[in-house]
Amino acid sequence: MKIAIISDTDTSLPQFILDEFDIRQASITIHFGEEILKACSDITDEQLIERVNREGILPTTAAPSPGDFAEVYQEAFNSGASEIICLTVSADVSATYQAALAAKDLLPGKQITVVDTKSISMGQGFIVLKAAELAREGKSKEEILAAVEDIRDRTHLFAALETLKFMAMSGRVGHLTAEMANVFNIKPILTIKDGKLDLLEKVRTRKKSWRRVLELTASSLGTGEIEKIFILHVAAKEAANDFEQLLREAIPTPDVIPMTELTPGLSVHTGAGLVGVAFVTKE
């Protein structure tokens, strides 16, 4: 029995991981007026940021449709899967979960389990990756579902925003707040809270915000060990490389720390320059 793992592009998982574990994803879509682009395949973080800055208009986003999920499900079955586990971004922030559920009705008689990860970005990504690892090992559906519940509580994400401009454009914060943050060089710290990317605290200057991210990371790790870790960024690879060196000085890290972009369905809210870390602690 082969179990296929399906998700959506809000996982922030890099393409090499998706390819290695044969993880299929339904795309969040980015809407510039009538133009509809699929996150990751049609538009990258860097392209999104460049276009918003050039046109001065923030696009909207939309969850995949039930038809989109049904298409991905069918591809998995056509490739030999006998069963599917679909792990979506938190239902509290997107209609993705409901679309994935509705898609089951389009493939009657097929074994499809849809799970709300109650997380986002690499919080969701680590859950999806764990499920894919276990599926490749031949674990049962019940074993996989039990493991993904466990990993959520061991997952941490902390990142420093470079700007509040995009959040102001989307109405998530006031324009005055964003302007004041720019004037006073305030760099908010982002984390995952209740399945959402949420502002944790505000720190002045990039140097201090990075230092605070490292302090939060070390505190969350405590005397534990890292099971998996990724560095996150939005169109800021050079800054992410600099951050990696500081991270290695702050905590014990594996020899290789993969780097990944937030992906357009999420970076549309953060803007360019975000740098941070997502990790899972060992049991």
If you had to describe this structure to a student in words, what would you say it looks like?
Helix 3 packs across helix 4 (96-104), helix 5 packs antiparallel against helix 6 (141-152) and helix 9 packs across helix 10 (237-250). The protein has two domains: 3-28 and 63-152, 3-Layer(aba) Sandwich (Rossmann fold), CATH 3.40.50.10170; 155-281, Hypothetical Protein Tm841, Chain: A,domain 3 (2-Layer Sandwich). The two termini are 28 Å apart. The protein is built from eleven helices and 13 strands. It is of the alpha/beta class and 283 residues long. Helix 10 (237-250) links the parallel strand 11 (226-233) and strand 12.
